[in-house]
Specification:
Blueprint: H1 4-17, H2 23-34, E1 41-47, E2 52-57, E3 64-65, E4 70-74, E5 79-83, E6 90-100, H3 102-121, H4 155-167, H5 171-178, H6 181-190, H7 195-233, H8 237-247, H9 252-276, E7 282-283, E8 289-291, E9 302-317, E10 324-340, E11 344-355, E12 361-366, E13 372-377, E14 384-394, E15 401-410, E16 417-429, E17 432-443, E18 446-448, H10 460-466, E19 467-469, E20 474-483
Parallel strand pairs: 1-5, 4-10
Antiparallel strand pairs: 1-2, 2-3, 5-8, 6-9, 7-8, 9-10, 11-14, 11-20, 12-13, 14-15, 15-16, 16-17, 17-20, 18-19
Length: 485
């Protein structure tokens, strides 16, 4: 025979007491179970052809696109590294922020729920290197004193030598050399060189150019000294006039431009070597992954949110002065989280709990002498309540059907209970996910304290005043269902 009140309670529980777990909590659970485990390094790169950030774990050679809200797990700590970083064409940065781990937050929620049960029972319980501003011009080229015996026979040759020195470092020639530097580093990576070796190849190319600039400067000063010396010592009047006309040209502005360029080139080489040349800054297969983050250390209580940004760099050479500069353009970015690895992940929800424990009830009756006494009535029906439940879902790789351990708290004013059991977590069932559990429940209910059945009382107020929670919980069973609509 059906119990109408129990059926009504079940219907009410299905409509109101079964509170859906938040989509964020459910997404975190599935995401945690599927999250890849990283041992020591998370490799990232920008795929220009696909216009997306990609990742690979540890020494895996296969790179994949970052999914939305990507999550990675680690048992210790990791570093974020950039594959084959070429600092002359790419900048990569990582910013990190610490936030409370959802598992820790769920445990705190469960502890608060368990505490509420206790209180119910016992109340009271390298952009480009810039040229220094206001740089003093270099001293004028030395004047060469021509011996009396010299007659400066060939002004055309002397002038051509000087022009060859300064024209060798024309903007067009400088651009050809400078724009090839990024390719030098990429080519070194391609041939199998390590990160420090590839950076070293680029530094060598830059330093070689700096040395060439120094040679051109010295030769230009020497040849200019010949021209200014011959302007006063040439024995042939016509030739002397040619030297004198050329000597009216002021070489200092061009000399200053070449000197500034040499300073910039030298500083660039030094910066590359200092920042990217050390072997401890590179890791991964053949040391080709550059470390772009500090050590990422998640804990049980705190997970790390990271944002990686990639900027494309383009070297530029001024069309007039040959000065070097860089143009930056944002390529892409991605945000992901790193959590501490655990075999179990927690989720908090509220579900309908069907318990087996019945509560005693008392009323009044009269004895043979006509006195009002305490009388035992029928126990209450098995309970149907909404409880806070923590599911410890196993990272067991069982697909849509995942085993779990369950701990819950029923903070009822009449039947506070602690639930311990297990169950199954079902994923991907239409629009909602289901968790079905069951196990043991330890419950406290109010019972007679000093009074006993048959004692004389003046009314029900005496009985209600005497009711106190039992000191030892009663053990029963429960079944629960959680559903996300």
């Amino acid at each position: 025979m059906h119990n109408p009140s129990l059926l009504a309670s079940l219907r009410a529980s299905a409509l109101s007491a079964v509170i859906a777990m938040s989509p964020v909590a459910i997404a975190q659970t599935r995401q945690f179970l599927d999250a890849p485990v990283v041992k020591s390094q998370l490799r990232v790169r920008w795929n220009a052809s696909l216009k997306s950030m990609q990742w690979a774990a540890d020494n895996d050679a296969t790179f994949r696109a970052f999914p939305p809200n990507a999550l990675f797990l680690t048992k210790r700590s990791i570093y974020v590294v950039y594959r084959r970083l070429n600092p002359l064409s790419t900048q990569a940065t990582v910013t990190t922020s610490a936030v409370a781990d959802p598992a820790y937050t769920n445990i705190i929620t469960l502890l608060n729920a368990l505490t509420s049960v206790a209180n119910t029972v016992v109340p009271g319980l390298p952009s480009g290197t810039a040229t220094p501003a206001n740089q003093a011009p270099p001293p004028p080229p030395p004047r060469v004193v021509i011996a009396a015996a010299e007659i400066c026979p060939d002004p055309a040759s002397d002038i051509a030598n000087f022009r060859a020195d300064v024209d060798a470092d024309s903007p067009a020639n400088v651009a050809k050399i400078v724009l090839g530097w990024p390719g030098t580093i990429d080519a070194a990576f391609t041939t199998g060189l390590s990160g420090p070796q590839s950076i070293g190849a680029g530094v060598k190319a830059i330093n070689d150019f700096g040395a060439t600039l120094g040679t051109h400067l010295n030769d230009a000063k020497k040849h200019w000294g010949v021209i200014t010396g011959c302007a006063t010592t040439a024995t042939d009047a016509t030739k002397r006039a040619i030297y004198q006309a050329v000597s009216l040209y002021d070489p200092n502005p061009r000399m200053q431009q070449i000197t500034a360029l040499k300073t910039t080139v030298t500083s660039l080489a030094d910066s590359l070597l200092k920042q990217f040349g050390a072997s401890e800054q590179w890791t991964g297969p053949n040391s080709t992954d550059y470390v772009i983050s500090a050590e990422v250390v998640p804990t049980f209580a705190v997970m790390q949110n990271l944002t990686t940004k990639v900027v494309n760099l383009t070297l530029k050479v001024d069309d007039t002065t040959s000065a070097l500069s860089t143009e930056q353009q944002a390529a892409g970015s991605t945000t992901f989280s790193v959590r501490e690895y655990s075999t179990l992940t927690t989720e908090i929800g509220v579900g309908a709990v069907f318990g087996s424990i019945k509560q005693p009830t008392y009323g009044t009756s009269t004895n043979a002498a006509g006195q009002m006494i305490v009388a035992k009535k029928a126990d209450t029906a098995p309970s149907v309540n909404g409880a806070v439940l923590a599911n410890f879902v196993c990272r067991c790789g069982t697909g849509l059907l995942v085993p779990m351990v369950q701990v819950g708290a029923l903070a009822s004013k009449d039947l506070p209970s602690i639930l311990v059991g297990g169950g199954l977590r079902l994923f991907g069932l239409g629009k909602g996910d289901i968790a079905i559990g069951g196990g043991a429940m330890a419950s406290w209910y109010k019972d007679l304290n000093k009074l006993k059945v048959g004692d004389v009382v003046t009314g029900t107020n005496d009985i209600n005043s005497d009711l106190k929670f039992i000191s030892r919980p009663k053990i029963g069973g429960y079944v629960t269902i959680q559903y996300k609509f």
